[in-house]
Amino acid sequence: MQKRTKSIQESYAGITNLVQENLSGIRIVKSYTRELFEISRFEKLNQQYYTKNLSLGKLQALFFCFSHCPDRFLPSPGGMDRRHKCD
């Protein structure tokens, strides 16, 4: 999970750097009509960021599920009749 979190932070840094770059060089971007290119770069970075965050969220949900009440997922001697209540 730590590697994924670090990867997400690096993706966010990439987005931040791109935005800062474009804002500081807005005249150059406009003068060379590079708006569409920069928009596509921004969308690509955002999609990567979104995908990584979604992946981490799914992993955290799974981790929470198993750590919150692990005995729900273990086979019990009584079979399926034995129900666990975890609060």
Question: What's the SSE blueprint?
Answer:
Elements: H1 2-24, H2 26-31, H3 35-68
Helix pairs in contact: 1-3
Class based on secondary structure composition and strand pairing: mainly alpha
Rg from alpha-carbon coordinates: 22 Å
Secondary-structure element order, N to C:
HHH
> Strand fraction band?
under 5%
Query: Can you tell me the overall shape?
Result: rod-shaped
> How many domain units?
1
The N- and C-terminal alpha carbons lie at a distance of 25 Å
Identify low-pLDDT runs: none
User: Helix count?
Assistant: 3
The overall strand count is: 0
Task: Outline the biggest β-sheet.
Answer: none
* Average pLDDT figure: 84
Helix content range of the residues, please?
over 70%
Write a structural description.
- The structure is a single chain.
- This protein has 87 residues and is an all-alpha fold.
- It has one domain (2-68).
- The chain is built from three helices and no strands.
- Helix 1 (2-24) runs antiparallel to helix 3.
- The radius of gyration is 22 Å and the shape is rod-shaped.
- The two termini are 25 Å apart.
- The mean pLDDT is 84.
Sum this structure up briefly:
By secondary structure, the chain is mainly alpha-helical.
